[in-house]
Specification:
With 226 residues, the chain is mainly alpha-helical. The protein is 46% helix and 4% strand. It is built from 8 helices and 2 strands; from the N terminus they run ααβαααβααα. A two-stranded parallel ribbon has the order 1-2.
């Protein structure tokens, strides 16, 4: 929505090679025309690449001074959402054959049991538990771009006040602030409805994630309400 931003043609570019990104971005002439109209123009790289180890290396080679915005979600909420996508992608028949998928409690117990000892099942291609541990990947991005070029934000802040969240983002990346209208609909939402996590499962996950979150707080010198 920002007038100084030209988004890429694809929401998520499925490659770690910046040379292959060119086709998704405006030409120099298109950017110049946009800049004439709006003062200046920028085009972001938008992708859930936190754990894609190759990307910060190749990205830093192409744009060493880039501003990097990392938005994180409470790892327990993220894992719950991840489990629902595993259900959605697995389908009813496959899920019925895999008892550890049928409930979130069973999924968490199996994930914790497999952690450090084997590879947990995934239909999405990503490990739910591993992808909910952030500290090392955040550290990797900071090492590539520098502390002053990386900001780590909590998505809960966006949902509580999206304009305050975006103003902080605009200031960091060098964009003038604008007000954005409140969202009236949701997109890309998993249609599966499931019971919320049980108290016992939340307690298990809080204990599991505690040391990893503590490492994250030390790296970003901040603490989220997780």
């Amino acid at each position: 929505m920002h007038p100084n931003v030209i988004p890429p043609l694809a929401k998520e570019i499925p490659s770690a090679d910046p040379d292959t990104w060119r086709i998704y971005y405006p030409t120099a002439a298109q950017k110049a025309r946009h800049a004439q109209q709006h003062g200046f123009s920028v085009s972001p790289y938008l992708h859930p690449s936190l754990h894609w180890m190759e990307v910060p290396y190749t990205f830093a080679h192409a744009r060493p001074g880039a501003k990097v915005v990392i938005v994180l979600r409470d790892p327990i909420k993220r894992l719950y959402s991840h489990w629902k996508w595993e259900l959605f992608l697995s389908g009813k028949k496959r899920t019925e054959r895999l008892p550890f998928l049928t409930t979130f409690d069973a999924y968490v117990d199996k994930s914790l049991d497999m952690h450090g000892h084997g590879i947990m099942f995934t239909a999405s291609g990503a490990s739910g538990l591993i992808h909910s541990i952030y500290w090392k990947s955040v550290q990797n991005w900071i090492e590539r771009f520098g502390t002053n070029n990386v900001i780590v934000l909590n998505i809960d802040d966006y949902f509580s006040d999206q304009n305050a969240f975006m103003r902080k983002t605009y200031e960091f990346v060098g964009l003038p602030p604008i007000e954005i209208p409140a969202a009236t609909s949701r997109t890309n939402e998993n249609p599966i409805q499931a019971p919320p996590p049980s108290g016992d499962t939340i307690a298990k996950l809080q204990e599991f994630f505690l040391p990893y979150n503590d490492k994250l707080w030390q790296i970003i010198e901040d603490r989220f309400d997780w």
